[in-house]
Automatic annotation (TrEMBL):
Classification via NCBIfam families: two_anch
CDD domains: A4_beta-galactosidase_middle_domain
Annotated Aerotolerance regulator N-terminal domain residues: 7-81
Protein name: N-terminal double-transmembrane domain-containing protein
PANTHER family: BLL2463 PROTEIN
């Protein structure tokens, strides 16, 4: 195969015949031998006569050009030219297919897998050995893959999935050099993600090693994967930054969703945000303005298109503002507000929590995450019962000691109430302990270092934190287990106990500086944070606090950014997590240690994405998406035949054998030149020559042919949006669905047809697939009149916003959703509702539970079931006009992309993350949709069959 840019010749040796064209020109232009001269006296009688018809002495130049063009077209045709040919492998030794396999490969993984399988198929036809390497898969040090027959690798590639971490290019660079020495060189096909992962020189080293081993082809993505930095709280809103590597790729809109769990435990979208990466900018801000209740339910933020682990940011307690209720036993409105107990608590909690105050009953009704009682001594029976029930249901109760608490415990002991109080973690002794008192210290006591693996593990205790007075706990067998912090003499400073699903924590000192200097220190704030009153100390912002503990994965992300079970993954040392570089031994996810939880993301607040270094000289660089291959042999043969026919006509005209159609040489030359130009441009460009039109209106043959084709067979039609790529996918999608219908049902649709709403008649089609484009112009009034007539006479419009975002209803959220609201504003449509689980659309051919396309999870909307009592008099519902068929179906699953195939039957777009299962369900939905349009209420009417048979029997 010989290539010239986008054109390649499969039989290039035939092009050598083009060199004979100059000799052929000379032979055709050669003058015939001069005639013999014979004197004949009678010729004098012809002198003076004029002959208006002259025969040319030589063959006209334009006729020579026509003949040479015909011969050249035939030579080029037999050389078999192909436009946008599939590149063949360049080498002859073993083929090494290198796949980055990391998170940056996830957005177009299906296309990468297809390219790898295509290369293996070429190697198998050439009987070449192959090696497939996944740079993100764990490898033993020094291990070298062995060449095997190319077909043996097919199963490994088909089951391969992207990982949730970066590829290990440095680890394979040395292996590639050693492998080249063992095999004597090899050819490499490197499917790279185009990103420079930590250690940018590693990619350059690997490229150099592969280039030195033999021919190197690097296939990069059409667009680099996006990243997402961890979310933060700013002015009460959840904010995350989306980042990219190539700021020169132009403007790029980005949509993201905040995902959490609903009351029933299932995942749901809690909010949507949009941003736009402008040209020259590498980051943009996504802002989620959510109420506190929803914001605290957010578990992760995910980019909607091109999903990957790098496009997901996990949220932990660092971005969840807890609601904390404060109650004090003293009057806080006195003359010394800065020394009150609530003052220190407010200052410690307000930066990270929503602080509410009031009476105990009102606080419990507000649904707080925690309640803090500052020296609240006596609690009446009603409040005690309500507080106990709230705590046992999962609330956190934190109590601080003080004179009132000590007095209340003394009175309880005097009255003989010695049982365990559910609102206290331990029993207290009467009185207290103070410097210079009956149970005195000689000096204020310091705080001991916190015990390992406790809730305060890792916090530094300042030397100036001392305690001069406290209430003491009664000794008992369970006191040590309930102690979280102690003083230098071993007496408890903080105790805690579990109560059903909740917990009670007691500080044996006051919340102000009267008994200790603890409230004056930063340790006071940190201890409250560790108790989960406001934020977890083990958040993504303080990875250095991870060291010194072992963390167990609770949930991990896969390469697509989907949460999953950690499986057999064991605990990870905090020092490994603190490196901030997830890998096979520490994938991104949520890790827990005791009462602490931490979200480990691929990106940090300082992460930037960088493009991969340029490849070595001589490397063939390709993109993942290629133009469709087109065979030019047929058009060139047709051109040669047309030119030969023109040559025959022109030769007859020049020789004078066409009576009444004699052409002057110059006129004939002009006609042939025009025909030659039209013949060359038309077949090669794939467009039909234009026909001149008269000034009077005449029937349009193309429109008549379109109408005839649409009425002869069942035809699926789509609305042309003006966006070439969207229209191409729509045509390919309906073509793929038509193939499936012909193979599985009695419906045999013809080729799909694109419809221009402004010009074409719509009555010929049972269904219109309308992909919503954000910038599609609004149709005219005449077009809306045709559309309304179409829906009122049995037609159905399938709107597809292609954004997987219709949970809140049609026309919400994304630019496509807003465009849908604009485009459908003038349509006469009935009220809509989400498709019920028992709708006839779920059983017209296949039994379905959902309606996926390229995306899964989009709500399907169609005509709501009318209430006869609410139906206006004299008005007929759509379902009665259309035999039970909804005139409109609205979704956002991008069905056309899931159905789309090329001429060879290959799928054009990746679908979902579960292989072919989601695509199969998308085809089943398409079959149900077409059968629903064509059969109406047939399936729904089957429920009446038993009653009809019984009536006939009677």
């Amino acid at each position: 195969m010989l290539s010239f840019g986008a054109i390649a010749f499969l039989n290039p040796w035939l092009l050598a015949a083009l060199a004979a064209l100059p000799a052929l020109w000379w032979l055709l232009r050669a003058t015939p031998p001069a005639p013999r001269r014979i004197r004949f006296p009678g010729v004098r009688l012809l002198l003076g006569l004029q002959d208006p018809e002259r025969m040319p002495e030589r063959t006209p130049w334009w006729l020579l050009l026509l003949r040479l063009a015909a011969i050249a077209a035939a030579i080029l045709a037999f050389a078999h030219p192909v436009q946008n040919p599939t590149a063949d492998l360049a080498g002859r030794g073993p083929l090494v297919v290198v796949m980055d396999g990391g998170w940056g490969s996830a957005p177009d993984w299906e296309a990468r897998r297809a390219r790898a399988l295509e290369a293996l198929e070429q190697a198998e036809r050439a009987d070449r050995a192959a090696i497939v390497v996944n740079l993100a898969a764990p490898r033993a040090p020094g291990a070298r893959p062995d060449p095997r027959p190319a077909g043996d690798w097919r199963g490994a590639v088909e089951t391969m999935a992207p990982a949730a971490w970066a590829p290990d290019r440095a680890g394979f660079a040395e292996t590639a050099a050693a492998l080249s020495d063992d095999l004597g060189g090899f050819e490499t096909l490197w499917l790279t993600d185009g990103l420079a992962h930590p250690g940018a020189e590693d990619g350059a080293d690997l490229a150099a090693a592969l280039s030195a081993a033999g021919p190197l082809t690097m296939i990069g993505p059409d667009r680099l994967a996006l990243g997402l930095r961890p979310p933060v709280l700013e002015d009460g809103a959840l904010v995350a930054a989306v980042i990219r590597a190539d700021a020169a790729e132009g403007p790029r809109p980005v949509s993201a969703a905040a995902i959490g769990r609903g009351p029933q435990g299932g995942e749901r979208r809690l909010g949507l945000a949009e941003a736009r990466l402008e040209e020259g900018e590498n980051d943009a801000t996504l802002v989620f303005d959510l109420p506190l209740e929803l914001r605290n339910q957010v578990e992760r933020i995910a980019i909607l298109t091109g999903g990957s682990a790098g496009g997901v940011a996990l949220a932990d307690d660092a971005v969840r503002r807890k609601r904390v209720g404060l109650i004090s036993g003293e009057d806080d409105s006195g003359s010394r507000p800065l020394t009150s107990q609530l003052h220190f608590l407010r200052k410690a909690l307000e930066p990270t929590a929503e602080v509410v105050e009031g009476d105990l009953a009102a606080l419990i009704d507000s649904g707080p995450d925690a309640i803090v009682l500052a020296d609240l001594g006596v609690i009446n029976d009603t409040d005690r019962a309500a507080l106990t029930a709230w705590m046992e249901a999962g609330g956190l109760l934190v109590r601080f000691a003080g004179p009132r608490t000590a007095r209340a415990e003394t009175e309880a002991l005097r009255e003989g109430r010695t049982g365990e109080d559910p609102l206290m973690p331990v029993r207290l002794r009467a009185g207290g302990r103070a410097v210079g008192g009956a149970m005195s210290w000689e000096a204020p006591q310091a705080v001991r270092p916190f015990p390992p693996e406790g809730v305060f593990d890792g916090l530094d205790v300042p030397a100036d934190v001392t305690v001069g007075r406290q209430v003491l706990a009664q000794p008992g067998p369970d006191l040590a287990a309930r102690t979280l912090a102690t003083l230098a003499d071993g007496t408890p400073l903080v105790t805690a106990a579990d109560r059903e699903l909740g917990r009670v924590v007691f500080f044996h000192v006051t919340a102000n500086a009267e008994w200790s200097t603890l409230p004056l220190s930063g340790l006071f704030v940190q201890m409250l944070e560790r108790l989960a009153l406001a934020a977890s100390a083990g958040s993504h912002a303080t990875l250095e606090a991870l060291e010194g503990a072992t963390w167990t994965p609770e949930m991990v992300l896969d390469g697509y950014g989907r949460p999953g079970d950690p499986g057999r993954l064991r605990g990870v040392l905090g020092a490994r997590l603190a490196e901030g570089r997830p890998g096979p031994d520490a994938p991104p996810g949520v890790y827990v240690s005791g009462d602490r939880a931490v979200a480990v993301n691929l990106a940090s607040a300082e992460t930037t994405l960088v493009p991969a270094p340029p490849p070595p000289a001589g490397t063939r660089v390709e993109r993942m998406t290629r133009a469709e291959e087109r065979d030019l042999q047929g058009p060139l043969l047709a051109l040669a035949l047309i030119l030969l026919a023109l040559d025959a006509v022109a030769a007859l005209a020049v020789s004078g054998r066409l009576r009444g159609a004699r052409l002057r040489p110059r006129a004939a030359g002009a006609v042939v030149a025009l025909a030659l130009g039209a013949g060359l441009v038309g077949p090669l460009a794939g467009v039909a020559p234009a026909h001149a039109q008269g000034t009077e209106a005449a029937p349009d043959p193309a429109a008549d042919a379109l109408a005839l084709a649409a009425t002869r067979d069942t035809v699926l039609a789509y609305v042309m949006t003006g966006d070439a790529e969207v229209d191409r996918i729509s045509a390919a999608g309906l073509a793929g669905l038509s193939r499936v219908l012909a193979a599985r049902t009695a419906v045999e649709p013809a080729e799909p047809i694109g419809v221009n709403l402004e010009e074409d008649e719509l009555a010929f089609y049972p269904m219109l697939y309308w992909p919503v484009s954000a910038d599609m112009p609004t149709p005219s009034d005449a077009a809306y009149a045709r559309l309304n007539a179409f829906t009122r006479t049995g037609g159905m419009i399938v709107f597809d916003t292609r954004d997987a975002n219709l949970a809140a209803g049609p026309g919400s959220g994304t630019p496509e959703g807003r465009a849908l609201r604009r485009l459908a504003a003038q349509l006469d449509l009935p009220p809509l509702e989400p498709a019920p689980s028992d709708h006839v659309l779920t059983r017209t051919f296949y039994l379905l539970q959902d309606f996926p396309g390229r995306w899964r999870g989009s709500e399907l909307w169609l005509e709501a079931t009318p209430d006869p009592a609410e139906q206006p008099a004299g008005e007929t519902p759509f379902r009665h006009l259309n035999d039970g068929v909804s005139p409109v179906v609205i979704g956002g699953a991008d069905w056309a992309s899931a159905w789309a195939v090329n001429d060879r039957g290959d799928f054009l777009s990746p679908v979902g993350r579960d292989g072919g299962r989601q695509r199969e369900m998308a085809f089943r939905f398409g079959v149900n949709l077409v059968m629903y349009v064509l059969t109406g209420s047939y399936k729904s009417d089957q429920v009446h069959v038993p009653a009809l048979l019984e009536r006939l029997g009677n």
